């Protein structure tokens, strides 16, 4: 998850939009991380169909916040 936090600000917007439309971020959180909480948050972002910089900001906020919450629990 740290890598995604680090990459979201630098990935091309077209790539973020493509993966958002396919619910790839949601699928990744569910299947790879086994994190239903993050998947649920990412699904809310996907449902809003943000585009461009707005999508980047929404993904960055959700993933960064979730990462910090997990980090504080450790």
Percent of residues in helices? over 70%
Unreliable segments (pLDDT under 50, ≥5 consecutive)?
none
- What Rg is obtained from the alpha carbons, in whole angstroms? 11 Å
Q: What structural class do you assign from the helix and strand content?
A: mainly alpha
User: Per DSSP, what share of the residues sits in E-state strands of 2 or more residues?
Assistant: under 5%
Describe the overall structure.
This protein has 74 residues and is mostly helical. The chain has one domain (2-73). It has five helices and no strands. It has helices at residues 2-7, 13-21, 24-32, 36-48, 52-73. Helix 2 crosses helix 5. The longest helix is centred in the last third of the chain and has 22 residues, at 52-73. It starts with a helix and ends with a helix. 20% of the residues are buried.
Write a concise synopsis of the structure shown.
Helices cover 80% and strands 0% of the residues. It has 74 residues and is an all-alpha fold.
Give the topology.
Elements: H1 2-7, H2 13-21, H3 24-32, H4 36-48, H5 52-73
Helix pairs in contact: 2-5, 3-4, 4-5
What would the keywords be for this entry?
single chain, 74 residues, mainly alpha, 5 helices, globular
């Amino acid at each position: 998850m740290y890598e995604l936090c680090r990459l979201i600000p630098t990935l091309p917007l077209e790539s973020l939009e493509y993966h958002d439309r396919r619910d790839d971020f949601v699928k990744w959180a569910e299947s790879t991380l086994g994190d239903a909480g993050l998947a649920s948050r990412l699904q809310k972002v996907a449902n809003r169909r943000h585009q461009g910089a707005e999508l980047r900001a929404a993904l960055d906020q959700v993933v960064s916040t979730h990462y910090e919450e997990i980090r504080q629990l450790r």
